[in-house]
Amino acid sequence: MATSxxxxxxxxxxxxxxxxxxxxxxxxxxxVIRDFLVKEIQEETHIVDDDPKWSEEQEAxxxxxxxxxxxxxxxxxxxxxxLIEMTMEDxxxxxx
Length: 96
Description:
The chain has 5 helices and no strands. It has helices at residues 12-24, 29-45, 56-63, 65-79, 88-95.
């Protein structure tokens, strides 16, 4: 799988504090953030470490440009507070 760079902006003092904290544990901040993101996705998608990894087909479907565009648009809408809360029953009613 190809890799990409993720850039975040945080306060310099906080960054130094976090780096120092994890350096004492023998970890670098990139690994800590990567592990955190993987854990979050695993919890959200119910993928756990002992599950088989995604097949190439599953990975291709998830990371295809159309799906990623949809995901990024949804994240932007959520960040802007444009959310609608619905129950499963509400969604089933809409599908009729």
